[in-house]
Amino acid sequence: VEKLSLKNVAISGKDDIGSLANEAQNNTKIKQVHVDGVLAGERGIGGLLAKAEQSSITESSFKGRIINTYETTAAYNIGGMVGHLTG
């Protein structure tokens, strides 16, 4: 995915929420993707992606709020760009 802007995104759900996609894997390349908005959920929340495995994100950004609606002190994979990153 390259050269994409998403404005005023508003997404709410329970698990695995990303404004661009749920998951990127197998050498997915994301470049110059910019998102602004609000995401709300319980776990697995990222500004661009809920999960990324063996993928790259360059020259991209997320500006906005990520709201954890689950009342816990445990870690539930929430991040500004990616909720859960491996590889």
The arrangement of helices and strands along the chain is: EEEEEEEEEE
Low-confidence stretches: none
Helix content: under 10%
Biggest sheet overview: 4 strands, parallel
The span between the termini is 19 Å
- The tally of strands reads 10
Silhouette: globular
* Beta-strand residue percentage: over 45%
| Assembly status | single chain
Compute the gyration radius: what is it? 12 Å
- Mean of residue pLDDT? 93
Q: Count structural domains.
A: 1
Helix/strand structural class: mainly beta
Number of helical runs?
A: 0
Quick overview:
With 87 residues, this protein is mainly beta. The chain has strands at 2-12, 15-18, 21-24, 29-41, 43-46, 49-53, 56-58, 61-68, 78-79, 82-86. Strands 1, 4, 7 and 8 form a four-stranded parallel beta sheet that branches.
What does this 3D model show about the protein?
The protein is an all-beta fold. The chain has one domain (2-86). 0% of the residues lie in helices and 68% in strands. It contains no helices and 10 strands.
